[in-house]
Design brief:
Shape: globular
Helix content: 10-25%
Strand content: 15-25%
Order of helices and strands: EHEEHEEHE
Structural class: alpha/beta
CATH topology: Rossmann fold
Number of strands: 6
Number of domains: 1
Strand order of the largest sheet: 2-1-5-6
Largest sheet: 4 strands, parallel
Distance between the termini: 12 Å
Number of helices: 3
Radius of gyration: 14 Å
């Protein structure tokens, strides 16, 4: 991924956190972030973005249920205030997790320079159709 996406200037890489209800023994998004970090020389800021609500695992939900994830579901550390960050996630299905992460990072005062995704399920989705869409969200890469 580090070589596939444009070289974005950033202070750190922020992986989407593993959901607290997950039974997985590792956070694959953190592992992806570490690989990008090794190739790009940008530090990974693990544990700077966390789930704050008990909302259940997204993997246990159907499409329409996934879209109901609150934008307040995550919180980001104030240590990210003024930092330019790259947000990393593994699977983009409906975009709810990414939108919650973006909202948390913005509330903390971070500048999200890019979002790197390992894979996405929906081809040709129009982010302008999302609730809460803003022009500064136009950094999505295919």
């Amino acid at each position: 991924m580090a070589y596939r996406f444009p070289d974005i200037a950033a202070d750190c890489i922020v992986p989407v956190p593993l959901h607290p209800d997950s039974t997985r023994a590792y956070n694959q998004t953190a592992l992806i972030s570490r690989g990008i970090s090794a190739a790009r020389g940008i530090a990974v800021a693990e544990n700077m973005l966390n789930w704050r609500m008990a909302c259940g695992k997204q993997t246990a939900r159907r499409g329409s249920e996934r879209k109901t994830l609150s934008l307040d579901s995550m919180e980001a550390s104030s240590a990210l205030t003024g930092k330019r960050v790259i947000l990393v996630d593994d699977v983009y299905t409906t975009g709810s997790t990414i939108r919650a992460a973006l909202a948390a990072l913005r509330r903390a005062g971070a500048d999200v320079a890019a979002v790197y995704l390992w894979t996405r399920r929906l081809a040709g989705e129009d982010p302008a159709a999302w609730p809460g869409y803003a022009e500064e969200d136009d950094f999505w890469y295919n």
